[in-house]
């Protein structure tokens, strides 16, 4: 459990404290996620809702690994300009998806810690493995849809110059561009809100434990 707490602390620093990702922190996060996945396979770790959320958090770093591998492929092999643009957009969208999934799952862990601290008995029916798996699945589905929208918007922007003025692609471009812009703005403000909420939650938990 101490290792899992250290891993959560690392992830909170990586996604909810630092304003942008750094190479060293990303590398440590990947190592921590790999180590965490191995730990959670052990029979000594009980299958609880928190463990399910942490497992999903660790698996989110697979998106970072895919982004790094795709970047290495672009550098290693001779690819066309269009393929480079597609890969570059995909890399960025995968990193964005990883950040959003991680922030949401970390917030779920914080919320569960809040319930355990202040409403341990009343919230027992909510803190189940089934609900944790359902929550993780919903987060993955929503962020995957977001990533698909961003990727579609980037592809349409890259091909908009060659499309006819009155073609259906133009209407699709305007729709996806507007939807992507609104979603990016919503994600930005949601990220700020999650940072504030997480700080408040752990502030309350810290002083509650200190008073005890």
From TrEMBL:
Domain of life of the organism encoding this protein: Eukaryota
Keyword set includes Nucleotide-binding: no
Matches recorded under Pfam families: 7tm_1
Domain G-protein coupled receptors family 1 profile: 32-212
UniProt cross-references to InterPro entries, sorted A to Z: GPCR_Rhodpsn (IPR000276), GPCR_Rhodpsn_7TM (IPR017452)
SUPFAM superfamilies referenced in this protein's UniProt entry, alphabetically: Family A G protein-coupled receptor-like
Biological processes annotated in GO: phospholipase C-activating G protein-coupled receptor signaling pathway; positive regulation of Rho protein signal transduction
Keyword terms, alphabetized: G-protein coupled receptor, Glycoprotein, Membrane, Receptor, Transducer, Transmembrane, Transmembrane helix
Transmembrane segments annotated in the record for this chain: 12-40, 52-77, 97-119, 181-203
Localization terms from the record: Membrane
Major subcellular location class: membrane
One annotated GO molecular function: G protein-coupled receptor activity
Protein name: CXCR3 protein
Taxonomic placement: Eukaryota, Metazoa, Chordata, Craniata, Vertebrata
Gene: Cxcr3
């Amino acid at each position: 459990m101490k290792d899992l707490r250290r891993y959560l602390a690392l992830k909170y620093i990586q996604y909810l404290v630092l304003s942008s990702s750094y190479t060293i922190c990303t590398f440590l996060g990947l190592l921590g996620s790999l180590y965490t996945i191995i730990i959670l396979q052990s029979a000594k770790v009980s299958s609880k809702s928190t463990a399910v959320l942490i497992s999903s958090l660790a698996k989110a770093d697979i998106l970072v690994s895919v982004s790094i591998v795709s970047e290495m492929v672009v550098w290693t092999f001779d690819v066309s300009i269009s393929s480079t643009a597609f890969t570059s957009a995909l890399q960025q969208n995968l990193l964005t998806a990883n950040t959003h999934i991680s922030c949401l799952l970390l917030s779920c862990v914080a919320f569960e810690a809040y319930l355990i601290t202040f409403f341990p008995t009343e919230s027992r029916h909510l803190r189940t493995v089934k609900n944790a798996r359902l929550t993780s699945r919903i987060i993955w589905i929503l962020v995957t849809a977001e990533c698909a929208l961003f990727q579609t918007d980037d592809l349409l922007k890259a091909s908009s110059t060659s499309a006819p003025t009155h073609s259906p692609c133009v209407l699709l471009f305007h729709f996806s561009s507007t939807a992507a812009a609104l979603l990016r703005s919503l994600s930005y403000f949601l990220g700020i809100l999650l940072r504030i909420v997480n700080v408040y939650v752990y502030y309350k938990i810290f002083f509650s434990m200190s008073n005890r």
